[in-house]
Amino acid sequence: MRPRKRFGPFVISIDDPSESFPDFEHPGTEFIHMLAGTMEYRHGRPTDQLQPSDSLTFSGQIPHGPGRLVEQPIRFPTVIVYDSPAE
Length: 87
Known about the structure:
Layout: E1 5-14, E2 29-33, E3 36-43, E4 47-50, E5 55-59, E6 64-86
Antiparallel strand pairs: 1-6, 2-5, 2-6, 3-4, 3-6
């Protein structure tokens, strides 16, 4: 039996200024922290402009994702913390 996942860490890299992203939705709470670049990040209706050293935490159940890519390359780690253990 595999252990249940309590969090999911990822590192996101965006280098193509023409790249577009769908809205993501998932259980849990998400945390992102900008390391490089500048982008507008959607989470529900609000959009925040994020640049290096900015952080954002929000419910994963609210539609979210990168919006306008202002300055590339963009790099940020993101961690999804699940409210209850998920498979």
